[in-house]
Amino acid sequence: MIQKPRLNTAILLFAQTAKADALYKPLAHNGALMDVLNEKVTKTAKASGFDFYHFTEVEQRGVGFGTRFTNSIQDVFDKGYDSVICLGNDTPLLTVKLIQDAADALKKGKAVKGKSLDGGLYLIAINKNNFDAPAFQDLPWQTSNLATSFHEYIAVQNQELEVLESLADLDTEQDLEDFLSGKDARRSIIRLLLCTFSRKQTHYQYFHKQTTSVISLLPLNKGSPKAA
User: pTM of the full predicted structure?
Assistant: First the structure.
């Protein structure tokens, strides 16, 4: 009896280094914050048990976000994988279970999206045989229309789409303040990580929330990646 081969899945973290991203992302000036977020997504991805690749600006090819992201996915497929789970680094509530749920959907031939509250995507999972690179590249990346357009992209291919729970991502100081003010246990854990990390810095200052935002709990220096 011939057994069906196991789906060969890899995780792609598409995120520039702090130095490169400092030019683009509003929070990128805060290297301490981005260090925590980078470390957390890396640990979460590796804990899922799948092969893991981090494509920074060194590995990315092409001009423009859509081109570089599309080429990075193709590069992972060219390594011999059947499917790719793509992550950014600005969604601190991402869990191993969400990654595993995406992998399970891929095994059923589905594509997967994890929607950010601002209309973007914190997770995209896609199989190689359903990857239309030109159409994928032309999606409205880094806009609030991305989640809807990705849904339409999948529908054109007559593919099923698994939708994960929506999560907050961190793009601005207001995003961070809103996130840290949340009351649920998961946010409390991230808050503790951020504050613990910040206390280790040389230039640590605390200002009351009424005079500055919560982000002033963290030391300000150069920062990091824009999520895919």
Answer: 0.78
